[in-house]
Amino acid sequence: MDPGIIIFISIAYVAFLFLIAYLAEKREKAGRSLVNNPVIYSLSLAVYCTAWTYYGSVGRAVTSGLGFLPIYIGPAIIAPLWWILLKKIIFISKSQRITSIADFISSRYGKSIWLGVIATLIAVFGVIPYISIQLKAISTSFDLLATKQSAIYRHAEIPFYLDSALYIAIALAVFTILFGTRNLDPNERHEGLVAAIAFESILKLAAFLTVGAFVTFWMYDGFGDLFQRAMDDPGLSRLFSLEDAGINGWEWFWLSFLSMSAVMLLPRQFHVAVVENTNPNHVAKASWLFPLYLLLINIFVLPIAIAGLEQFPSGAQEPDSFVLSLPLAYGKDILALFVGLGGFSAATSMVIVAVISLSIMIGNNLVLPLVLRTQAFQEKQYGNLSGRLLGIRRVSIVVVLLLAYGYFKAVGEQYSLVSVGLISFTAIAQFVPPVLGGIYWKKGTKKGALWGLLAGFGIWAYTLPLPTMVETGLIPIHFMEHGPFGIELLKPHELFGLHGSNHITQAAFWSLLFNCGIYFFVSLYTSQSPLEVSQADIFVDIYKYRKGSSDYDVMRRQAKIQDIRILLNRFLGEPRGNLLLNTYENTQRIDLSQHQVAEADLVNYVETHLAGAIGAASAKIIIGSITKEEPISLEEMFKVLEQTKEIMQYSKALEKKSAELERTTKQLKDANEQLKELDRLKADFITTVTHELRTPITSIKALSRIMKETPGLPEEQIQEFLSIVVSESERLTRLINQVLDLEKIQSEQKNWTLSPIDFAEVTERAYAGLKQLMRDRNIRHELKIENRPLKIMGHNDRLTQVVVNLISNAIKFCKPKDGAINVCLRQAGGRALLEVQDNGQGIPEKDQKLIFEKFTQLNDETRGKPKGSGLGLFISHSIIQQHSGVIYIRSQPGNGATFFVEIPLLEGGQT
Amino acid sequence: MANDKVFKLLGLFFLAMLLFNFPILNLFSKGGSVAGIPVLFAYIFLSWVLLILFTARLVESKPKQNNKPR
In this complex, which of A227, A252, A287 lies closest to B37 when CB atoms are compared? Predict the structure, then answer.
């Protein structure tokens, strides 16, 4: 294929990426962010999949079968913890305006400059080999597409000015500069970049799935066919067993561990996952979408490797480029071009993000702290620093890419993509102890982190990159074979005599062992500065701070407002500086022009925002240059922390007390309400009783007086009056008896002793007592007892009273002529059920509830004068309640009424 | 409770650690095939799918549902 076409397509592709970035930024400005959603966030995390994944996995699978997988399974294993770990790191970073992994470590340990420098160096040197393999992948795929054969020449042997890889590196540098350093964002967020990365993630996945499907379903008849052939071939079947492929558990574990740390701590991963994060809740979706992405991009790796081994048995093609050479071998040039573009996108996305994040680190944590210490800055002779900052970044981008090119040219070519990539992973894993310790262990000190990192980095450099230099001739070969000065124990690949394990595994083991150990023990034996104490507190207890309690006043600093203005204008440019101060004025409601001196609060505010632009350590120095610091002593610092703790405990105790008080008050209020209600009831009761008493007395009095004062009243009249007097007195007696009864029942309630009795007997007795009366009134009556005995726990006399009361009521209210009463007793479920039915007027529904209350007499025209005291049913109701039973009525006006009494049967009541 | 979720996620992490490491992994590394797919390949990808499903279920669960005692 014509190289011109390939170059043209690549450039067109890059231009398209710029278009995406431009559109995304435009939408961001319009307030409709494209990037602020969890799917884009997950896709941007997929910058994890680089040329290593795209080309290198197949190469690795050719030699070690599924041994390529731990790199992707590691992230899938750690993903469930993102919701805990990554979210916490994001919260911390957003509150501290952290812009890179080096900044994170430096900030945690008292904004230490030295830690920032060391972490930056580790990141830069660690990632350079990684970037170099992207260059290698791009140039190899370019060669392959252009000439259809790999390895036509070795890059190391041609002069650099003829080397395509150099021009690729330069193009990438230009591209990255255009992408990442157009302006200085105080939060280091680049929505355009994220959108472009997300697009690249989609493209590389699509391309890889396409070539995978081509191999599996076009070249072969699906997975089954492909695997069957491989299993039949003794040379290939080893790929399906880890042991045969030379992978042991120890190596597998370390590879997955390294990838777990890499997926969160690699500078570019930290950049997309933390710095570019728009909403911490996106982590939730990403923690399963991202592993899903990894699964998809890996599912065809083994099939492609097998197909490659079958197609090119002689080793005519580099396994790292099977992905490309397979479609090419079948003459599918367009497909190959698409696949090449996918690989190009995998490599470019990694390079852009990695280099941008490295350039931020180099600028903020390496160069700036050094520049700021120079005399020139102290004397304030610099002009606009914000332009200078961008300049520093641009230079560092170029330097990093040239270093990567240099590494590629010197050593990268002899090694496979994966083995070089793993060198980088091991370097980045050195960040695990200071980061993990930093967010969960307050006692971790700056010195511990510093010495731990140095030791880990030293061992890494000695055991991994150093040996790769041997072939370049920089290191003599006997150094590798017999160790330095002939000390066998120090052989880089068998450090301390550790035989038999892969060199990555042993390097990871020793470097992390020393790193962790030193971090831990030095931390235990050194103390923290006040600033470290407060930073440690913020990092570990970030959720406490997020709940509104403000930052501690660590530094009681003052500065001239004029100085602050100058500083902000220099570093952020005038418009942004003014905006920042205006925001402060608005939120704090003060007018800065009225003040000369800025208080600690404003100074801290400015420092956090500056830290966003230039890193925590640099911001600390700059602010230091204009403030009069009165750093708090360690004791004071502890006192502040202690006090805060005490205050919090105290306020918690207060809250508890006040809750208790509230509860008590409520109880008192309720009790008071109850008393009031009782009082009201009593008053009601007395009013009603006296009223009820007065009615018969009035009529007795009136009739007696008539009889006394009217001599010569006809005998019949007298007889009639007397009978009324008698019946009224009877009513009076009944009323008084019932009131007494009621009192008795209510006062006795507690002392009732219920004993087992037969409800049937009780009913029979009560019924028998009233039989004569019913006969006298010509009422048809019937008693039906279906089951007997019906043993219940009850009070004989009281129950009799109830039954008598109900039957008397029925007698009173049944039809005056042709009356009928049915009493029926039976067992219903675990209960005795008594029914007393009459055929009177019935009771309207609205009154059915009322009749069981005190002094309810249904009084209407058709019924005439009430015949009762109004207490009978209330008393019955009270008694039945005492028996844990219920009493209720069913009635339809005009059709009589039926009263029901239900009382629970005694356990085994039938016996 | 949020705490509940944290422990469930931790549990899932340790389970994944166990399933995707030796010696469990070695149990499936003896060769042979299921339905034409090599056992190890099938085991890893199937467990991977399950891990993704469980993670999704856990992280997407709303706090309210977690409050209910089960």
Answer: A227
Determine the residue of chain A that is closest to B23 in CA distance: A249
A135 with A644: CB under 8 angstroms?
no
Pick the residue from chain A with its C-alpha nearest to B11: A80
Task: Flag whether pLDDT at A613 surpasses 80.
Answer: no
pLDDT tens digits along A287-341: 999 999 999 999 999 889 888 888 887 767 778 888 888 888 888 888 888 888 8
Q: Which chain B residues contact residue A291 at CB under 8 A?
A: 48, 51-52, 55
Question: Nearest CA of chain B to the CA of A74: how many Å?
Answer: 9
Answer whether A76 sits within 8 Å of B29, measured CB to CB: no
State whether residue A260 sits within 8 Å of chain B by CB: no
The overall average pLDDT reported for chain A is: 81
Question: Are A77 and B17 within 8 A, CB to CB?
Answer: yes
Asked whether A138 and A473 are in contact (CB, 8 A), the reply is no
pLDDT of residue A384: 60
| CATH superfamily to which A752-904 belongs | Histidine kinase-like ATPase, C-terminal domain (3.30.565.10)
Q: Cα(A190)–Cα(A184) distance, rounded to whole angstroms?
A: 10
Domain residue limits at B51: 2-63
Q: Which residues of A810-840 are buried (b: 16+ CB within 10 A; e: fewer)?
A: bbebbeeeebbbbbbbbbeeebbbbbbbbbb
- Evaluate if residue A660 carries a pLDDT over 80: yes
Supply the CATH classification number for the domain A3-438.
Answer: 1.20.1730.10
Q: Which helix (H) or strand (E) holds A781?
A: strand A780-785
Please, how many CA atoms are within 13 Å of residue A847, restricted to the half-sphere of its CB?
A: 17
Q: Mark yes or no for CB contact B6/A227 under 8 Å.
A: no
ipTM of this predicted structure: 0.90
Q: Which of B25, B48, B60 sits opposite A284 (nearest CB)?
A: B60
The residue among A64, A66, A221 with the most chain B CBs within 10 A of its CB, best to mutate, is A66
CB contacts, 8 Å: B6 with chain A: 84
A519 falls in which pLDDT band (50, 70, 90)? very high
pLDDT digits 0-9 by tens, A581-610: 888 888 777 777 777 777 777 787 888 877
Taking CA atoms, A260 is separated from A118, A122, A287, in Å, by 22, 18, 13
The answer to whether residue B52 is domain-embedded is: yes
Rg for chain A, CA atoms, rounded: 47
All residues at 6 or more sequence positions from A201 whose CB lies less than 8 Å from its CB, including other chains: A43, A44, A46, A47, A49, A293, A349
* Pick from A227, A284, A291: CB nearest B33: A227
